[in-house]
From TrEMBL:
The lineage of its organism: Bacteria, Pseudomonadati, Bacteroidota, Flavobacteriia, Flavobacteriales. This is Cyclic nucleotide-binding domain-containing protein. Residues 24-115 form the Cyclic nucleotide-binding domain. SUPFAM superfamilies: cAMP-binding domain-like. It comes from the Bacteria. InterPro entries: cNMP-bd_dom, cNMP-bd_dom_sf, RmlC-like_jellyroll. Gene3D superfamilies: Jelly Rolls. It comes from Flagellimonas maritima. Pfam families: cNMP_binding (PF00027).
């Protein structure tokens, strides 16, 4: 779905549709929960989560994308890519109360909805269906991680790239250098792979 940036009502509809695709929830309860979300648009390469930040929120990408970046003394590594209709957070920072060890940057212009973890947890207690939603998004995130780990164990870079393309062509919005970093190959190798398909 093409989202006209800045159209908060349309973006909120995307969040609403996503939630309704995961659980059965009555309109009044959903409206209460949605009222706790904040909306913000991030321009390209803008930090959504900064390294060293104390993370206190869950985030939902209505449009655009983000990459989780780890900095080493030698280079910056794109460790993960996240696109539309996904929730994310820095779970380690959120649960431990420690500073984030990575940063999350917008890939392109990205519309985000965020909800404070404290509020999310209050809703878990208040609304059993929301607790189910929280479990489902955590399971989805875990499956994404497992599938990614398996792909790195059993597939070469070209196959991983082709598999990513099958799931979503959103990866074509990721700059070559960042996508190559995520795949664990050089930008030249990725260019060759793209020419061969």
């Amino acid at each position: 779905m093409l989202l006209v940036m800045g159209d908060t009502a349309m973006a909120m509809e995307l969040l609403k549709t996503y939630i309704n695709s995961k659980i059965n929830i009555d309109e009044a309860t959903l409206d209460t929960i949605l009222g706790a979300f904040e909306n913000k648009t991030f321009e390209k390469d803008t930090p959504i989560i900064k390294m060293g930040q104390y993370v206190t929120k869950y985030y939902f990408i209505a449009s655009g994308g983000a990459r989780i970046v780890i900095e080493t003394p030698e280079k910056e590594i794109t460790a993960w890519l996240i696109f539309e209709n996904k929730f994310f957070t820095d779970l380690e920072s959120l649960r431990s109360g420690q500073q984030s060890k990575a940063k999350v940057l917008s890939i392109d212009r990205t519309e985000i909805f965020s909800i404070k973890a404290r509020k999310m947890h209050e809703f878990y207690t208040e609304f059993p269906e929301w607790q189910k939603f929280g479990r489902i998004i955590m399971e989805d995130a875990f499956l994404d991680v497992v599938n990614s780990l398996i792909s790195f164990q059993v597939m070469d870079a070209e196959t991983r790239y082709l598999e990513m393309l099958k799931k979503s062509n959103a990866i074509n919005r990721v700059p070559l250098k960042q996508l190559a970093s995520y795949l664990g190959i050089t930008p030249n190798s990725l260019s060759r792979i793209r020419k061969n398909i």
